[in-house]
Specification:
heterodimer; A: alpha+beta; Ubiquitin-like (UB roll); DNA polymerase, domain 1; 5-stranded mixed sheet; globular; B: alpha+beta; Aldehyde Oxidoreductase, domain 4; Aldehyde Oxidoreductase, domain 3; 3 domains; 6-stranded mixed sheet
Chain lengths: 161, 789
């Protein structure tokens, strides 16, 4: 079946099997391998992408369900050659170790910050509670997302003045 | 963290030891540009899926693959009978046993590999699995080691000639006679029976392989989720009979290992055999369920422990007997001469003369493995039993558990300390670490608070664990994996422009080697970390090493790095003397620069020297500035720490919440404090997971309950406690930079602290033990049973 999906701002039309999972479409057809597969059962969140700005676990969405919609993956975070503040923050606050959960954690983080620019620790922990990290104990992931929020606010007020 | 900063000898720009340098590897990971196993895509690549046994124990009567083979897109279906033709139906394990690659005679655990499909795409491969028909004749399943050792139990390993029971090994350590005497003299004997449950490392990335055997050259390039690529190359050569120079193992970015990626799994072997026969690359990536039911389980020790104690509160001796559930194949990844790993470090942080350990391993109808899940060869189980016994002993003596520990700790002046089971602890200061943790919670006031809370019907508990680890294998006299001695290596090359490349035999799975190992070189040579590239995981392009597990990278690979850097510095000194027209002895070194004694303005930088090594060396000197060092450590290192946990238990529901978690760790010199703390918070979370929720269990038929992340519970950010970290620094006296290894301390030390806290909370009920995971229903039942007594 033919679908058209906008991935990271670029429209892409392709013929896919109706049963193809969105994560496989992203990784194999679109060749964007920053989105990972960790559990196949919607439990770990490693495959999270933004579908029309909302985090979804792409192992439990069919590619055809994304027809006509817009997807952001980790590869879409960097804009105009500049890292997104959340990418900078994950590095600065040591928010990653093996890096496997990181793309999804950053995307969930940006979705949270869009709604809540200055989240509390509990806000962040709740927002990422659908995403498992086996390395960090989450401490620095929380710091990274909060740090990114502050950086985005500082940037915005800098531009306003 | 002043202790670490005191040792800084390089500037922030150079970024040597003690600086929290931001990680080099992050640049690719934060942009989704990591290259994990499943990201490897080769031209013409085929995909493999594995058919697994649905039952725990059965004879295979027949396997019919015709329908699967007829499915369009299927290239091949492989069974054990096919592999027998290549002598590959069985393979050796890391513990000298054999393991079925694809089952031929029987299946011996649920999830065992029975057949493999090779297809043009992964969906077709999965479809074809449903078209393979296997006729099984069920046999009774054995699901625990005591049942396995009982008279008349079905013999699981009837493939082994003359095998009439399910015993894997009987092993002892320590001095039985001396220990019996200690117990005879004891005023009090405290005992504990507990099961350290089967668990799974479950790194977020599962295991997999992409095998690419070139039909023209015979060169086998095997991408592998491998924590030990060099050892795996040698084992591949021995198993498959391929010439070792024609095997290249590439371990790409690894999405967490924790011991899961140490063994060789049947899937790796089948994918390689398939590529060899078909002549195209073959990819196999586990599903999560395959990962949890078939690869690399950990723990599963049924333990009985006893402490002999004097009425004054001195430990006199210790006895333990453990029954190890090995699953269907004995596949522990551990040194050959220690059958129960390093469990005999179970005397822990305490000074007493007598200990005796008895270990019995048994086959069961469960997955093989016995990997050290984020620990150094069973030190986790050892630490758990002694720390649980110490708490119960204190209670029976009427002593405070902290005071009991302080009284029995090995004292700082006793190091190097010879333990009753044969270890030589390198250094430690246990009293200071525990005192720091107690001060952090204001222990005397906390005890009062607990007393008050009890009066109000609230159950606060305080748990302490003062652990000692043994990490950094080996020395080569005592430690090996499958006969390969446990040394490690570093090759350092300094280019003419003063930039360096460091190649290692170890392999990061998230620990940050590309940063910390560069920091060691920066510290020794004054070359900025940003000028140093670190390469690992490609056996064609790195020196031989045993890999990364058991917290051995820094103790062994880190030592190799420091030594080779120092050797190059000595050559650099001779070059500098040549450039400065001085003699070697007249030169002084400061990080990054040689200068003439008494004339600090007359000097040359390491970069000047590197250039001269290729452009202006003295007559007779070998050109270049590079070298390789293989480091055989003189001893293990012994990280330690004290953890204090405060919990509150709700007696109505059995739910317990962590109020505080204080972790004081001593891993010797900290190369990168930021990374060290990240390792500790990760380990504390895994320790909490084991104490609170995470286990792999089975029903009586051997069905795995815990085959996905909805049944095998892993803490999210919401359940994970908040941690408070502190440190002491007691350098290892034998390590070139005084470091000890830290990746596993918190997983090893913390489970007992959490459990001790819950048991402490339940003291008013007279409860002395609840096995891990301390699930709410277990707590609730224990309270109800206690109230009924």
């Amino acid at each position: 079946m033919e679908i058209t999906v906008t991935i990271n701002g670029q429209a892409r039309t392709s013929d896919v099997q109706p049963r193809k999972l969105l994560v496989d479409y992203i990784r194999s057809d679109a060749e964007l391998t920053g989105t990972h597969i960790g559990c196949d059962t919607t439990s770990c969140g490693a495959c999270t992408v933004l579908l029309d700005g909302v985090p979804v676990k792409s192992c439990t969405v069919f590619a055809v369900q994304a027809n006509g919609k817009s997807i952001t993956t980790v590869e879409g975070l960097r804009q105009n050659g500049q890292l997104h503040p959340i990418q900078e923050a994950f590095k600065e606050h040591h928010g990653l170790q093996c890096g496997f959960c990181t793309p999804a954690m950053m995307l969930v983080g940006t979705a949270l910050l869009d709604k809540n620019p200055d989240p509390s620790e509990d806000d962040v922990r709740w927002a990422i509670s659908g995403n498992i990290c086996r390395c960090t104990g989450y401490v620095n992931i929380v710091k990274s997302i909060q740090g990114a929020g502050k950086a985005i606010q500082a940037q915005a007020s800098g531009q306003a003045s | 963290m002043t202790t670490t900063h005191d040792q800084l000898s390089t500037s922030v720009e150079v970024g040597g030891i003690g600086h929290s340098v931001r990680r080099a590897e992050d640049a690719r990971f934060i942009q989704g540009a990591g290259n994990y196993l499943d990201d490897v895509k080769l031209p013409g690549m085929l995909h493999m899926a594995i058919l697994r046994s649905p039952v725990a124990h059965a004879k295979i009567l027949s396997i019919d693959t015709a329908d699967a083979l007829a499915l369009p897109g299927v290239v091949a279906v492989i069974t054990g009978a096919d592999l027998e033709g290549y002598n590959l139906a069985w393979m050796p394990t890391l513990s000298g046993d054999t393991q079925a690659v694809l089952a031929t005679d029987k299946v011996r655990f649920q999830g065992q590999e029975v057949a493999a499909v090779i297809a043009e795409d992964p969906y077709t491969a999965e479809d074809a699995l449903a078209l393979i028909f296997v006729d099984y004749d069920d046999l009774p399943a054995v699901t625990n080691p005591r049942q396995a050792m009982a008279e008349g139990a079905p013999v699981i390993r009837d493939d082994k000639e003359g095998k009439t029971d399910n015993s894997v090994y009987h092993w002892e350590a320590g001095d039985k006679e001396l220990t019996d005497r200690a117990f005879a003299e004891a005023d009090l004997v405290v005992s504990l029976d507990t099961h350290y449950p089967r668990s799974h490392p479950a790194p977020l990335e599962t295991c997999g392989a992409v095998a690419d055997v070139n039909p023209a050259t015979g060169k086998a390039t095997i991408y592998l989720t491998s924590q030990a690529p060099h050892a795996h190359r040698t084992l591949f050569a021995l198993v498959a009979g391929l010439p070792e120079q024609n095997i290249r193992i590439i371990s790409p970015d690894i999405g967490g290992g924790f011991g899961n990626k140490v063994p060789i799994y049947p899937g790796y072997v089948v994918a390689t055999a398939a590529s060899l026969v078909i002549g195209k690359p073959v990819k196999w990536v586990e599903t999560r369920t395959e990962n949890l039911i078939s690869t690399g389980f950990a723990r599963d020790y049924h333990m009985h422990g006893e402490l002999a104690v004097s009425k004054e509160g001195r430990i006199l001796g210790m006895r333990t007997h453990l029954w190890s559930d090995q699953g269907a194949f004995y596949a522990d990844a551990q040194p050959t001469k220690f059958r129960a790993g390093l469990f005999h470090i179970c005397t822990g942080s305490y000074d007493f003369p007598a200990a005796h350990v008895v270990a019995d391993g048994a086959y069961t109808n469960k997955a093989p493995g016995g990997v050290a899940y984020r620990c150094s060869f069973r030190v986790t189980e050892a630490s758990y039993i002694i720390e649980r016994l110490a708490q119960n002993a204190a209670y029976e003596l009427g002593m405070d558990p902290a005071e009991f520990r302080m009284k029995n700790f090995i004292r700082p002046e006793q190091f190097p300390y010879h333990s009753p089971t044969g270890f030589v602890y390198d250094s430690g200061d246990y009293h200071t670490a525990l005192q720091k943790a107690l001060d952090a919670v204001d222990y005397p006031n906390l005890l009062k608070e607990q007393e008050e809370a009890r009066k109000q019907g609230r159950y606060l508990g305080i748990g302490i664990a003062s652990f000692t680890e043994v990490v950094g294998a080996g020395n080569s006299r005592d430690y090996d994996i499958a006969g390969l001695k446990m040394f490690d290596s570093a090759e350092l090359r300094i280019h003419p422009t003063g930039k360096a490349i460091l190649k290692l035999g170890v392999k990061s799975q998230g620990q940050g080697h590309e940063t910390t190992f560069a920091q060691i070189v920066a510290n020794e040579l004054g070359i900025p970390v940003t000028d140093i590239a670190v390469i690992e995981g490609d056996t064609d392009n790195t020196p031989y090493g045993l890999g990364t597990y058991a917290s051995r990278s820094t103790p062994v690979g880190g030592a190799a790095t420091a030594v080779i850097a120092r050797q190059l510095r000595e050559k650099a000194r001779r070059l500098a003397a040549h450039l400065l027209e001085a003699s070697d002895e007249d030169l002084e070194w400061e990080p990054g620069r040689f200068y003439i004694k008494g004339a600090p303005e007359k000097g040359v930088t390491i970069q000047d020297v590197a250039f001269a090594a290729y452009t202006n060396m003295p007559d007779g000197m070998e050109p270049g500035l590079e070298g390789v060092h293989y480091y055989d450590p003189p001893n293990m290192t012994y990280p330690f720490g004290s953890y204090v946990v405060v919990v509150e238990v709700d007696p109505e529901t059995g739910v317990w919440e962590v109020e505080r978690m204080i972790a004081v760790d001593d891993c010797g010199v900290r190369i990168n404090p930021m990374i060290v703390e990240g390792q500790i918070t990760g380990g504390l979370t895994e320790g909490f997971a084991k104490a609170n929720m995470q286990w792999i269990t089975f029903d009586n038929d051997g069905n795995c309950i815990g085959s996905n992340f909805m049944d095998y519970l892993i803490p999210t950010a919401w359940e994970t406690p908040r941690f408070e970290l502190d440190e002491t620094v007691t350098p290892s006296p034998h390590h070139p930079i005084g470091a000890k290894g830290v990746g596993e301390s918190a997983t090893v030390g913390s489970p007992a602290a959490y459990v001790n806290a819950v048991i402490d909370a339940l003291r008013p009920f007279g409860i002395t033990n609840i096995d891990m995971p301390v699930l709410p229903h277990r707590v609730w039942s224990a309270i109800r049973e206690a109230q009924a007594r």
